[in-house]
Amino acid sequence: MIDLKGKVAVIFGLANKRSIAYGIAQKFAEAGATLVLSYQSERLRKEAEGLITELAQEHSAKAFQCDVSKDEEIDALFAQIKETYGTIHSVVHAVAFAPPDEIKNDFLLTSREGFRIAHDVSVYSLIAVARAAAPLMESGGSILTLTYYGAEKVFPNYNVMGVAKAALEATVRYLAASLGPKGIRVNAISAGPIKTLAARGIGDFSKILDAVTERAPLKRNVDQSEVGGAALFLASDLASGITGEITFVDCGFNITGI
């Protein structure tokens, strides 16, 4: 049993009960962690606070607003965290976005602005968050992000997001090298397809789910709880020697050929 009592975990990307961030938050809460959950905008406040109420039944949890595309909001969030908790031990970056047209249109039609937005929100935000978090991780800790197999292989209707995820995976490695001397580990989970709010923007998503069920060694898709379990392990001392890695949680789909 992994015990995170006395540990503070900051989780970005809380959207609703179907989000991967929520599945991770559940596992961290069960392990006794103190949760700091971040939602993007005022529009999401009510739902985020409702989820906080459920997650905080037994353990401490608070919600803060933070748009990770704005450095001033990231700085303000971590200033609040420093004042409230003093130190943190884990950060989960479960944030990604590209304008809808950049995903559904032919990749050749990717616009300069759409490319910029996808990489700013989905990739650069990890660097910005890590930079703000590092001073509060005085005893080392774990930073974790979420990627997808579309970073390595072409998936229909994924387009510029696949390119952003490839950049994100490279960023994980460079951050791991940069933060390693401080005892801060940086890793990513490459989760299989899950029916989240974000997944609704991917055309023919059900075909991807069906392909995984057919080809994956376990003959099924993963759920948020399984991703949460892997995240809990990577955030714990059991993974103290693991950094710069991409861990697949996809029922083995990535190992298959045909």
Automatic annotation (TrEMBL):
SUPFAM superfamilies: NAD(P)-binding Rossmann-fold domains. Keywords: Fatty acid biosynthesis, Fatty acid metabolism, Lipid biosynthesis, Lipid metabolism, NAD, Oxidoreductase. It holds the Pfam family adh_short_C2. It comes from the Bacteria. One of its GO terms (molecular function) is enoyl-[acyl-carrier-protein] reductase (NADH) activity. Transmembrane segments: none annotated. It catalyses: a 2,3-saturated acyl-[ACP] + NAD(+) = a (2E)-enoyl-[ACP] + NADH + H(+). Pathway: Lipid metabolism; fatty acid biosynthesis. GO terms for biological process: fatty acid biosynthetic process. Substrate binds at residue 98. The active site is at residues 148, 158. NAD(+) binds at residues 13, 19-20, 40, 67-68, 95, 165, 194-198. InterPro entries: Enoyl-ACP_Rdtase_NADH, NAD(P)-bd_dom_sf, SDR_fam. The keyword NAD applies. Its EC number is 1.3.1.9. CDD domains: ENR_SDR. Belongs to the short-chain dehydrogenases/reductases (SDR) family. FabI subfamily. PANTHER family: ENOYL-[ACYL-CARRIER-PROTEIN] REDUCTASE (PTHR43159), ENOYL-[ACYL-CARRIER-PROTEIN] REDUCTASE [NADH], CHLOROPLASTIC (PTHR43159:SF2). This is Enoyl-[acyl-carrier-protein] reductase [NADH]. It comes from Granulicella sibirica.
